[in-house]
Amino acid sequence: xxxxxxxINGYVKKENGNEYASSSVTLxxxxxxxxxVDVGMNRQLLLDALKQEDLRxxxxxxxxxxxxHLDHCxxxxxxxxxxxxxxxSVYTFDxxxxxxxxxxxxxxxxIISTPGHxxxxxxxxxxxxxxGKVAIAADLFWWPDDKDFKVG
Length: 152
Ligand SMILES: [Zn+2]
What we know:
Blueprint: E1 3-8, E2 11-15, E3 18-22, E4 25-30, E5 33-37, H1 43-52, E6 62-64, H2 70-73, E7 83-85, E8 89-91, E9 97-99, E10 110-113, E11 122-128, E12 132-136
Parallel strand pairs: 5-6, 6-7
Antiparallel strand pairs: 1-4, 2-3, 4-5, 7-8, 8-9, 10-11, 11-12
The site of zinc ion has 5 residues, from loops.
């Protein structure tokens, strides 16, 4: 069983004529592993959120990128000890690329392909005691903060 926590709620906003965006960032703790799903593009916000969890970038073992839109993956390079996973491969900072069997190595956390928003989009399925099975879907809903979300 894993413990999950949304460290950063994703956002899109306009300020002074500029657009700012960053994805949600989710922390999964599984046994002794620290796993992030997406890392966003607001460096200070991410570092502060990790600090709140007594974590440094070097403490992260895996980063799962749900897709490669930059608002989800711009900061992945700061996690130099992590293995980076996408919908089909594991990447390490020595340039190695290998395939995996749909689960984060050493865990029962599953990564499934969910093309749609992006051709290579994936979602993360996590078994938790608190919430049962959780899907971290990323960009399932997407709209600017200054507009109301309406169904139908
Ligand atoms: Zn996206």
